[in-house]
Amino acid sequence: MERRILLRSAAAVTTGALIPAAATSGTATATTTEAAGAQASLRRVHIVLFDGVEELDFAAPLETLDIAGKFGAPIETTLVTCEGPRTVVASCGTRIEVRAPWKPESADVILVPGGDVRDPERPGVAREIRRGVIPAALRAARRLRPVMASVCTGALLLGAAGLVRGRPCTTHRMSRDKLAEQGGKVIDARVVDDGDLVTSAGVTSGLELALWLVQRGHGIDVSLDVERVLEYERRGAVHRTGQG
To answer: Which pTM was predicted?
Structure first.
């Protein structure tokens, strides 16, 4: 309870109108125009999969957002690939049947997980950068003005699309030099929120990213309820630029 009070007090300073006036059933109800606008813009989340994607990079945000939905946050999460419906083979061999089409016009948030960045001959981020399909699709989708988000080395796919140039951002600590080479202003933080660009650090930071998106769009109380279900307490910092 003390932690909830402390975080609500901190959120009152950092997120202002996103804090609900009251929470009588464990879910948050935003009461201002600003909060309503934030909720409307963080409802439809598309998670981009590709061969070699790290399981935890996408599974942690997927489950976090799903739990938030069970607490009343109107979030719809969809797994997609830039090529349309197909079977994706993830880093550890998990096979995922992706049935949804690539429709970025239906997304408020496009979330890009990470994968291997060392060998372009193996499935993962390095190969997808070389192929160019995902960067091209993300670059085209940017014109639709969704929030672009990433977990771990997924930021390098955003970078290959030209979406981090001159922007505060972060990624796995072992890939920060590459992100800087792509023009990103790399910040040492678990999550960096630059408004329509929200990036997160290494693998487990996908939890922080998703919890932050829940808090930003649907209130601190919902995010704390989700934490309790996950039995996870956020760590590290969220670096906000004032654009979020």
So the answer is: 0.86
